[in-house]
Amino acid sequence: MKVLLTGGSGQVGQEIIKFKPKKVDLIYPDRKQLDLANYESCKKIFRENRPDWVINCGAYTAVDDAEKEFSICKKINSYAPKAFTEAINEINGNLLQLSTDYVFDGKQNYPYKENQKKNPLSKYGLSKSLGEELIKKNIKNIKNATILRTSWVISPRGKNFILTMLKLHSERKYIDVVSDQIGSPTSAADLGKVCWEIIKFKHKKNLPFIMHWCDEGMASWFDIADAIGDIAKELKIIEKKAKINPINSTEYLTLAKRPKYSVLDTLNTVKLLDIKPINWKENLRKILIEYQQNKNIILS
Fold first, then answer.
1. Catalytic position from the list 124, 174, 252, 261
2. Which domains does the chain have, with CATH numbers?
3. Which residue of 26, 139, 202, 221 is surrounded by the most CB atoms within 10 Å?
C-alpha cells in the first residue's frame, strides 16, 4: 500500500512516520516538493505518485495570524483538501483529513459529537470547516474519505504549548495562563497511531465520514501549565516551578476568538477502533520523559 503524507515535518506528521506499518510505502514530500497553498501542486504530487491513501495533516495552524492572512490560510486548509479530493476521485483513492475542535463555537458544556452543527469563531476554524465541507461536496464516494477532528495537540518537539511553558517555568517566577478555555490535550504520538488504525480498518469496518480523537479527560490551559511545572520539576527538567496565575480570556487578548469549551466526544471512535484513550496527564508525563531523553542525547 502506498500512502502520501503531507505535513511530515510537523508534530503529528513525525509521529505518523515513526509508527508507519512495515508494508506501507510512505511518501512525505517536503515544502519544496509540495506547496499546499498551490492547488495544482497538490494534484501534481498525487498524480506523480498515485497513492492508495492521502493523509493530509499539513495545515496552516497559526490561529491568530490566520485573522490577517486568511487568503493563504484558506488555500492550505480549505482548497488543498479539495484538490486532493478531486485527485483521489480519478483513481478511487482514499483521503484521511485532519481537522480541529475549533470548528465549534464552544457555547455548550458537554463534549461535541461528530454530527453537531459547526459554528467556528475564528478564521482558522472557518478554513478547517470549509475544508471539511469541500471534501464532502466533491468526493465521489463518501466511503473513501474520513475527517478526523482532534484538539490541543502536544508533543516533545516543534512549536507547542509544552515547550513554551518549560521555557517560562525556567525563566520566570510567575506565569499568567488562561483558565476559562476547556479542551482535551492530545498526544501527537497517539494521534499518529489512530491515523494508521483508521487506514487499517476504514473499509473493513465501514468507518464513518467524521471521527473524533483526543486524550482522555479535559483541562484548561492553566491546568496543563501547572501540570507541566509539577512533572518537569519531578523529572528534574527544570529546577523550579513558576507560580501559575489563572486569568480569564478577556485578560489575555488575542486576534482570534477561541471556543470556551471544545472537548470532543470520542466514544464512537473508541468503540469502532477498540482503542482506549490514555489520560492527558499520563501522556504529558511520557512526552516530558521523551523530551528529557532527547535533550540529554543532544547535550552528550
1. 124
2. 2-156+186-217+257-279 (3.40.50.720)
3. 221
